Write a sequence for this structure.
C-alpha cells in the first residue's frame, strides 16, 4: 500500500509517499480501508520534528473514515462496517494518511449516516479534543465560557458542545467569522473582553497567559496543547487536554452529527499522492475547516 511519511524533518517538501507492507491487525484491532483522512496541525508538528523521532520513519495522520477490511481476534467489528476512528500517536511508523490503517478496536465508532466519508474524517481528533477539554472545565448549565479560536476546528466543536449543555458561550474569532460563530450557538466577542469576565476559558487559539486574564478568580482554564497551560493564578485551575482515543465517546459525537448538532467543515481535498501539496496549503494559513486526503 501507499502511505505518507516523513523520514527527515522539514517543510511540506519533506512529506513522502512510499510503498509499505499492508499492516495486519492484531488482537483487539481492526484494519480500515481508508476512504478519507483529515490533515491536522499536529501532522505539521510531527513533520517539523516538534514531537521527536529523529532518524525514524514517521507515519502521518490521526483521523480516519473508511470501511473495516480485516479484524484481529476479540473485536465486535466486521469487514464491511463503515467507521470512523482516532489513531492516536505522535511517533508511529504508519498513520492514517495511507491506503489502509490499523487501529485499536475500542477507538472505532460507526460512521455518520448523514455525511460522506470526507466530512466524517474531520470529526474524530478535533471533536474528541473539544469534548475532553470541556470535561476538564466541569461547567454546569448556566455558567459562562469563552472559547478562543471559536471559528477553528476544535473551537467550533467546543462552542457547539458547550452551548448544547446550556452553557453561555462567547466565541473569540476574527470579525469575518462572526456570523459563523453565531451559527454555533455562541455570542461573538465584541470589543475589549473584561478581565475576569468568564467562569472558564477553553483556549483553542493557544493564547496562554492572555486568555487566563479573562477567567474569574477561582474559575477554570483548559488549553489544547498537553502540559503547555499557564501556571495557576488567582485560584484559577489550569489544565490542558491530552486527547485520548475513545470509541464510545466518538459514537456519541457521531450521533450529534446525524442529529445536525455538530458542524463538519471541509476546506478542500487532495489525493494521497499530493500530500506534500496539502501540507503546503495548511502551512499557508487561512484555512477554515479541514483539508482531507483521499487515497
Amino acid at each position: 500500500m501507499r502511505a505518507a511519511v516523513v523520514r527527515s524533518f522539514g517543510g511540506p517538501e519533506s512529506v513522502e509517499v512510499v510503498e509499505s507492507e499492508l499492516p495486519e491487525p492484531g488482537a483487539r484491532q481492526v484494519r480500515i480501508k481508508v476512504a478519507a483522512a483529515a490533515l491536522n496541525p499536529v501532522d505539521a508538528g510531527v513533520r517539523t520534528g516538534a514531537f521527536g523521532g529523529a532518524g525514524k520513519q514517521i507515519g502521518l495522520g490521526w483521523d480516519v473514515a473508511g470501511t473495516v477490511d480485516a479484524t484481529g481476534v476479540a473485536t465486535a467489528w466486521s469487514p464491511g462496517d463503515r467507521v470512523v476512528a482516532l489513531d492516536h500517536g505522535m511517533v508511529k511508523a504508519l498513520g492514517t494518511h495511507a491506503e489502509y490503517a490499523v487501529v485499536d478496536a475500542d477507538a472505532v465508532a460507526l460512521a455518520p449516516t448523514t455525511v460522506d466519508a470526507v466530512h466524517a474524517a474531520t470529526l474524530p481528533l478535533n471533536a474528541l479534543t473539544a469534548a475532553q477539554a470541556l470535561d476538564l472545565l466541569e461547567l454546569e448549565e448556566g455558567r459562562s465560557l469563552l472559547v478562543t479560536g471559536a471559528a477553528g476546528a476544535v473551537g467550533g466543536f467546543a462552542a457547539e458542545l458547550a452551548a448544547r449543555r446550556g452553557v453561555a458561550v462567547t466565541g473569540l474569532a476574527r470579525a469575518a467569522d462572526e456570523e459563523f460563530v453565531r451559527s454555533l450557538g455562541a455570542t461573538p466577542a465584541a470589543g475589549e473582553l473584561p478581565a475576569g469576565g468568564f467562569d472558564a476559558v477553553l483556549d483553542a487559539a493557544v493564547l496562554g497567559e492572555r486568555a487566563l486574564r479573562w477567567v474569574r478568580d477561582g474559575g477554570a482554564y483548559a488549553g489544547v496543547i498537553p502540559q503547555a497551560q499557564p501556571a495557576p493564578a488567582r485560584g484559577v485551575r489550569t489544565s490542558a487536554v491530552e486527547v485520548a482515543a475513545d470509541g464510545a465517546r466518538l459514537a456519541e459525537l457521531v450521533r450529534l452529527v446525524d442529529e445536525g448538532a455538530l458542524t463538519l467543515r471541509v476546506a478542500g481535498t487532495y489525493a494521497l499522492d499530493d500530500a506534500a501539496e496539502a501540507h503546503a496549503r495548511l502551512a499557508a494559513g487561512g484555512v477554515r475547516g479541514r483539508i482531507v486526503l483521499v487515497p
Summary: The helical segments are 41-48, 117-120, 124-137, 153-164, 178-183, 209-212, 247-258, 275-284. The mean pLDDT is 97. The two ends are 10 Å apart (CA to CA).
